Amino acid sequence: MPSHRVPSEADIISTVEFNHTGELLATGDKGGRVVIFQREPESKSAPRSQGEYDVYSTFQSHEPEFDYLKSLEIEEKINKIKWLPQQNAAHSLLSTNDKTIKLWKITERDKRPEGYNLKDEEGKLKDLSTVTSLQVPVLKPMDLMVEVSPRRVFANGHTYHINSISVNSDCETYMSADDLRINLWHLAITDRSFNIVDIKPANMEDLTEVITASEFHPHHCNLFVYSSSKGSLRLCDMRAAALCDKHSKLFEEPEDPSNRSFFSEIISSVSDVKFSHSGRYMLTRDYLTVKVWDLNMEARPIETYQVHEYLRSKLCSLYENDCIFDKFECAWNGSDSVIMTGAYNNFFRMFDRNTKRDVTLEASRESSKPRAVLKPRRVCVGGKRRRDDISVDSLDFTKKILHTAWHPAENIIAIAATNNLYIFQDKVNSEMH
Amino acid sequence: MEGTMFARGLKRKCWDGDEDVEGAPAAPSYSLQRQSLLDMSLVKLQLCHTLVEPNLCRSVLIANTVRQIQEEMTQDGAWQLPAPPVAGRGPLDHLVSTEILCRAAWEQQGQRPAPDLPSELPGALGAPAPGSAQSCIWEADSSRGHRGSFPKSLDQIFETLESRAPSPVEGLFADAGGPYYDLDAVLTGMVGGKSGPGGGDGLQALAPAGAPPPSASCKRDLGELDHVVEILVET
């Protein structure tokens, strides 16, 4: 985006996603736009631009709509983007707002035919008397043009707000989840979807739990997981039944009675769930922690990491200003050894599962210049305070890092801080401080 | 706003409540704080100023919190009709005092009134005002609060109609194409056996725009389909 534009609410980034090779990075924003960045190939002639990401394409994915029957606006905000595995020269991605999913095809054009017999350079018909010989048109190089076109629109599948989409490993189907239902779509069929999960109670007064996130298993095309606002995960097998209301496995950690408060349920609500690349683990984010679950153990997570435990005594204020409902995402690195999630004050956290070390970093223009090394930050909670520490009460709760993504193979991360995108690359072996 | 909240919270923590914070009284009782949290929650549920559908997850979580508070208040025998929701923000110290509610349960021991009633809840929870706050939320999600032609109880009619949908097998192949509210289908009755987004939800999409009344039980005897059509036609 041009740097002279005044940032508005429409520029707030609402989703970030690398494609399967990491060559492309897509962002969606509140204004319904998608911006795709492409990694420049590293070249010896320009060693300073080592694999940096530049804008590749920008397009308007969704427009605001008005539901006349309900008298409600349908936001154009892009909730999620998921790339399809690349099957030919073109790239494809799915983007969704609250109600409608769209399939976009991205193609490059870097040649054009020249030398037509009947038309001139501008496409006008030639005067036939000037045509004295026949020539074969040839393809000549031209400036690269990236063309984006909507190939499918999957509409009217959801009554409630879509929170997740996930492409199946079979590359033919994908799922979309809203607060109460999950639908299975075929990528080529837009007028029909299969409902595979429905937790809507017969009487809406009995509603106490909603679906918060959902994802297909990376390798087993019949398995998917969905998380709930009560902190549980359900692993479902589509081979077992057409309607997967009965889970195959239920992952739930028993509540700690000594920590119970009126906010216990709210902070246990899972805001994001991600399978590891290996497919053996799941990563979940709730308000104060990230947890790693082993698919073979339903009773409790195998690892729990505190993201910002210092907020536990502030839960009432965070409930009052609605921050307690913020939905943070989480991410695995390519080797599943490090996990990352965002926090407040433009901080984000990384946890090394092997060394058990963690680090807090900040994404902001003031604290990071290009090619500078990020300095670890620390939040102090009283007691000894070091020079650069931030106190809990100085944290800016309007600066939240909800959306983060990790390159599928390399140590490159994309951090969305409100309307700014930060891309951090690690050139040497990463060492947790 | 957040800065103010936390600044005051920090002062209270550091100064152990011995010093008055800007002349505020010492920490109010647990009951008062709990009541304050209940009031805050009810206000949150009823604030629907935006044109966009409210976040269902947030509404569910707040409603569950309200329910928990009410259950505890019933157990304590402290149950009373909640004060009418405060339109604006209450006094700052009133809200800040609820910090204490963030503390773990074991810290509360000795501060809470001992429960002296059996924990039978249904009757108490049937009390009009909180019950209606709870039942109103989901309908607020699918209806708007500022057009008043349909009576609220129509929600329940639509809900029950939808739940009489046919076998799940048909629902799997719900036709997602076309508008998902088909007025003709609704007026002729059972939406032709379709459930899921193509059919049943069409009824819900037509759910009333009426403002939910603050009282009243929400169950209604359905009886005849004619009765429903009559209401729709009348309005």
From TrEMBL, chain A:
The keyword 4Fe-4S does not apply. The keyword Repeat applies. Gene3D superfamilies: YVTN repeat-like/Quinoprotein amine dehydrogenase. Transmembrane segments: none annotated. GO terms for cellular component: protein phosphatase type 2A complex. One of its GO terms (molecular function) is protein phosphatase regulator activity. SUPFAM superfamilies: WD40 repeat-like (SSF50978). Belongs to the phosphatase 2A regulatory subunit B family. This is Serine/threonine-protein phosphatase 2A 55 kDa regulatory subunit B.
TrEMBL record, chain B:
Residues 109-128 are annotated as: Disordered. GO terms for cellular component: nucleus. Residues 117-128 have a biased composition (Low complexity). InterPro entries: E2F-SERTA_domain_protein, SERTA_dom. Residues 30-77 form the SERTA domain. Pfam families: SERTA. Keywords: Cell cycle, Cell division. GO terms for biological process: cell division. This is Cell division cycle-associated protein 4 isoform X2. It comes from Phyllostomus discolor (pale spear-nosed bat).
